[in-house]
Amino acid sequence: MGGTRVAVAGTFGPLHDGHRNLLRTALKYGDGGIVVGLTTDTFAQASRTRDVPPFGDRAAGVEAAIDEVDEWGREHEVRAIDSEADIVDADPDIDALVVSPETAPELADINETRREQGMVPLEGIVAPYVLAEDGERISSTRIARGEIDEHGALLDDASDG
Amino acid sequence: MGGTRVAVAGTFGPLHDGHRNLLRTALKYGDGGIVVGLTTDTFAQASRTRDVPPFGDRAAGVEAAIDEVDEWGREHEVRAIDSEADIVDADPDIDALVVSPETAPELADINETRREQGMVPLEGIVAPYVLAEDGERISSTRIARGEIDEHGALLDDASDG
User: Which one of A11, A142, B25, B51 counts the least CB within 10 Å of its CB?
Assistant: First the structure.
């Protein structure tokens, strides 16, 4: 029962510094360990037109990123999720969920569902956006488009053959 | 620099279980201590038609509530604030701000201001709403109207002379 358990969920591919910051924020506050909900290929692809890297590659990327940013030696677990609700509705042992400023209001709905199921409501932890060199947010979509690299550096328009 | 410093701001009067939960959430995550930004009477009254209890009473209520809910023995400081921006724009030593689900999106603007001033962005901690007996949120406004008590119990329509 030691400490606060924090969940974070996403597709994490291509992995970038925004993801590293989400994971670092979860680790910072998760003194009871963290749970990373990683979308299955089917679930991740359903909401996107771009290709998503395969689950195994994304899982390996998450593990490497955690190694890199975990200053606290927290426990962690990576779980496959195939619906929006998978982690937060089903797991009574989670205390808090890492969200972005724009998804934070969804916590009210999540908590309504949890209360109906007799679970305690989740706290939210809002990780700040990580900005690219041009002051816009880093996103996997921008990386997939070839606009920026995983650290937010702007790439040349001219792409190599 | 000893852990995470968490700020929470508000009017805290009449004090209720929603406030106790905000303070408890700040204390839970604030292993480097908490700062409570308490609105001055002028600032608090400017946005309200109802009477707000005087600053000294509200400060005493916050101190008593912290004593009651602090399971961790955190350091705390109560500061007077007389603008929305007072704590979060001015204090570079704060790591995180406790917000409600509805005010969480304001963190993006706060952090834009902080970045412009060369400060690191704040994390947010979203405390779940605390519900009254009727399933609606506890609020100081409802208490001032005589609808509920500070713990969210519904009060009789008939008021004593």
Answer: B51
